[in-house]
Design goal:
Number of strands: 2
Radius of gyration: 26 Å
Largest sheet: 2 strands, antiparallel
Number of helices: 15
Structural class: mainly alpha
Distance between the termini: 83 Å
Helix content: over 70%
Length: 495
């Protein structure tokens, strides 16, 4: 080899080593920076929300409070997407009816559609009458109280998401409004009977959701799973269950998701649900018969029959959630915009479209960027779900909301859905223990499972159960305390 060729070979070898080093550095940089992509996009969205407010109102000093409120409204919407939407998609993902990516894609589409198409155009600025506007000394005091409520609710939901606890965004906003109201106008500003009803819902909604989910799971087990001919039983009962689901969701959407289109009372919603439920039952009978052909007589085959109804129920829950809960993100923001624009405040105000868009896209971005953590928590880490159990959870969520509306109780979709997951898990524990005790009586002594071992075999993770319950209990007081402190800080800075 000539000196020239040897020099070229050495040069190429050195170049290859340098390229390898650069590749390793690039890969390491990508790995390190990956956790920062989500927060970076979220921050960009918040800045964009502030710029949108500036475009609509101008960059004058008197409009800075609206721009700031838009930024925090976007922050709240991101946190709602990260925490609250897991309740809709978690069971379907945990049951392997949907992949994580597919669930996120469906949720993004249906959450946005629900918020933009059926989101309420009128929202209570003081969150369902928790505080009286007449107790506020001036419009500026009201604005800073709503700002404090918005910031505290967003911070609390963000903290809960980081810990891995699904909490009620509605209760976070309620606590924020209550705390800011007390700080601004004293304890007399709070409507305590309303707060008592909300406190009652902390207990009633998860228990009701759990009981309804457990009841449907017991029905499926007794009428389908424990039958000798499971496929024949499924042909009969799956269309009935699909009809119940269709009727429940039709009533649910009529009550909660169509406020912007028309006002529908409970009896009318139930009649709509009954009609659509019967129609779905009739249509589903031949479809299930065709789908059940050739299936083996075992539990695994039943999962196929529940897969599509479960996906549809998850999508409908996302639509209703987007329509109903977008107000949690943009309600205080809409109140601030109205007070800043007109110099007055009222019980109810119209939500501008640009504010609604911030809420809708914020929920979608939050779900896409930060939602997987809570989706996995609800779907698989509390208890093991399959399509049948997840179906019971989704069905329970819709029915519980209808029952709560009939009773006039303010409920949280988060408490209902997670309570339903607990209900399914605890029912399975009870049923397994009951069947084990019955079978152990026929077994010889040496083959019987000791009571200590039976107690060890729990199907619901107690650590997650205690964490979630603790987060629920302290949500309102924690958000209230944070909101009061933030109001005092804002008031001190402004004045």
């Amino acid at each position: 080899m000539s000196d020239f060729n040897k020099h070229d070979a050495d040069h190429l070898e050195t170049l290859d080593r340098d390229l390898h080093r650069l590749s390793y550095l690039e890969n390491a940089t990508q790995y390190v920076s990956r956790p920062m992509v989500g927060p970076g996009i979220a921050l960009a969205f918040m800045v964009l929300a502030g710029l949108s407010a500036a475009i609509f109102f101008g960059f004058e000093p008197q409009n800075y409070v609206v721009i700031l409120a838009a930024v925090f409204g976007a922050y709240m919407a991101l946190n709602i997407g990260a925490n609250d939407v897991a309740n809709n998609m978690g069971p379907a993902v945990g049951a392997n009816a949907l992949s994580l990516g597919g669930a996120i894609a469906i949720a993004v589409v249906f959450e946005s559609a629900g918020a933009l198409l059926a989101g309420g155009d009128v929202v209570s600025t003081i969150s369902k009458g928790i505080i009286a506007p007449s107790t506020m000394a001036s419009a500026s005091v009201f604005i800073w109280a709503m700002m404090a409520a918005l910031i505290s609710a967003a911070l609390w939901v963000n903290l809960a998401t980081w810990v891995g606890a699904p909490v009620s965004t509605t209760h976070s906003v309620v606590g924020g409004v209550m705390g800011a109201g007390i700080a601004a106008a004293g304890f007399g500003a709070v409507n305590w009977p309303t707060m008592s009803a909300i406190a009652a819902s902390w207990v009633i909604s998860p228990m009701l959701g759990g009981l309804i989910a457990a009841a449907f799971l017991a029905l499926i087990k007794s009428r389908v799973i424990y039958q000798e001919d499971k496929i024949a039983a499924a042909r009969k009962w799956v269309p009935i269950l699909v009809g119940i689901m269709a009727g429940a969701f039709a009533s649910y959407l009529a009550l909660k998701g169509l406020k912007r289109v028309m006002k529908i009372d409970l009896p009318t919603a139930l009649l709509i649900g009954l009609a659509l439920g019967v129609l779905a039952w009739i249509v589903t009978i031949p479809l299930i018969r065709r789908q059940a052909e050739g299936l083996e007589n075992r539990n695994k085959s039943l999962k196929v029959l529940f897969g599509i109804p479960l996906v549809i129920s998850a999508a409908l829950l996302s639509f209703a959630h987007g329509a109903n809960d977008v107000a949690n993100a943009v309600g205080p923001l809409a109140a601030i915009v109205h007070a800043a624009e007109f110099g007055s405040f009222a019980d109810k105000v119209a939500i501008p479209m640009w504010v609604m868009i911030i809420g809708a896209f914020g929920i979608s971005f939050g779900l896409f960027l930060f939602g997987p953590k809570l989706i996995r928590m609800v779907g698989s880490q509390i208890t093991k779900l399959n399509p049948m159990r997840a179906y019971c959870v989704s069905l329970s969520a819709a029915i519980t909301v209808i029952v709560a509306s009939w009773l006039g109780l303010p409920v949280s979709s988060t408490h209902i859905a997670v309570g339903a997951v607990f209900g399914v898990g605890f029912y399975r524990e009870w049923d397994a223990a009951r069947r084990m005790r019955a079978s152990s009586e026929t077994l010889p002594e040496e083959r019987r499972i000791a009571p200590e071992e039976r107690r060890r075999r729990k199907l619901v993770r107690r650590s997650h159960f205690m964490t979630i319950i603790a987060a629920w209990v302290i949500t309102v007081p924690a958000a209230a305390i944070m909101s009061g402190l933030i109001f005092y800080i804002l008031n001190a800075v402004v004045n």
